[in-house]
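Notebook p. 47: complex prediction with uridine-diphosphate-N-acetylglucosamine.
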Amino acid sequence: MDKFVIKGGSPLKGTIPISGSKNAALPLMAASLLGSSASTLKNIPRLKDIYTFNNVIRVVGAQVTFEEDENTLIIDPENVNYLEAPYDLVRKMRASFYMLGALVGKYGYAKVSLPGGCAWGPRPVDLHLKGMEAMGIDISLEKGYVIAKAPDKVEGGTFRLEPSSVGATVNLLLASVLKAKEFTIENAAKEPDVVQLCDHLVKMGAKIDGIGTDTLTIRAVDQLTGIEASNDPDRIELGTFMILGAMAPGTELTLTGCNPEQLGSFTKKLRETGAVVEIDGTTIEVIAPKSLKPVSIKTQIYPGFPTDLQAQWATMMTQADGESKVTDTVYFDRFSYVPELTRLGADLDVEKNTVHISGKTPLTGASVMSTDLRASVSLVLAALVAENTTEVLRIYHLDRGYESLETKLRTVGATIERVDEE
Ligand code: UD1
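Predicted complex, structure tokens below:
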């Protein structure tokens, strides 16, 4: 197992290119299975979750070619012949559950393992299943597996997501575009990842009304064609580096290949800290203020503040002059980073789904443990502003979602090494 050894304290300056989005790529990969011919997906990041999903797609018989140097993925669904996604793959990554919608949508049958537990809070899939049932797909549970059957076209109907869910919206789109005569999703997710998927499916030949709104109506077509498309940049990676850019005086980061429009309310919040955020097309420059103002945030569905940036924000707020709060209204139990930040000297208290942060606390190097993807990157951010050396253990979580993290950080002046924990 690898760890990062980080010597903090030096102001960072330079340019970081933003990679393709993991969370946006996974639905496009699943959508490729719906085509009658191969799809070519560009700007796909080289991340563990992508490799895992490639393997899930290979298990069903599709041909997957990842031209890694080009960040290009070619998925040919022609020889799909096995309609199952087994537990040992699905447990590695929840998004493998997208196989349910893709397989039942195209082939009328799917057997997919329930995702099981995860490191933070309950993350149910009840809405994915209830939505498919509402559409007319037969759903049954057997020994930890979901079996979905719909040999012929189904009538469809209307299903309301409560709460709005990215994963359920994606799975219901995948299931319905070839299968449901007319299906309406109310309170659908409007996250950029969902909009990209809808636009992509329409280019493949699907009929979807209401794209970008919270009401999506799908009318099944008989066939979808494979296409070539370029994946969106990763807004969460971008937000993470923008936070890093604002965290310590003297830091100036230029982030290239961005889609600033996909940041929702985040940019406004970052400017409230006193950070300078200059946007020029697809380039964003962030200059840290001399003194960071405390700014409280509450996560919301898009375009609200993303839950995937709350841990990083709380970490930045340990360096702000005063008290602030971070409340997660999407997930109530996503604070595993708090005890680890405390080990570095931060002053944070969790009360229900809110973290109270008292700044500014100097941070001093220690050994800390990664617990999930966004928690892990927060520890890296903290280590970069901490005095002395910090070891961030179990960084395999980071490899799931941040492409070439240490290389990117080194180019802007960070001292960070990946070493074997043994
Ligand atoms: C996706 C993202 C994840 C992000 C999350 C919220 C991917 C691969 N992951 O996860 O990084 O943190 O969106 O932006 O894209 N819910 C139910 N029943 C369900 C499904 C969800 O109650 O069947 C609830 C969840 O508990 C949560 C809320 O809906 O409170 C939103 O979750 P959801 O949008 O589904 O998250 P994911 O798609 O799993």
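Notes: The chain has a mean pLDDT of 96. Residues 23, 26, 94-95, 123-128, 163, 165-168, 189, 193, 307-308, 330-331 surround uridine-diphosphate-N-acetylglucosamine (CB under 6 Å).
Next step: compare against the earlier run before touching the bench.
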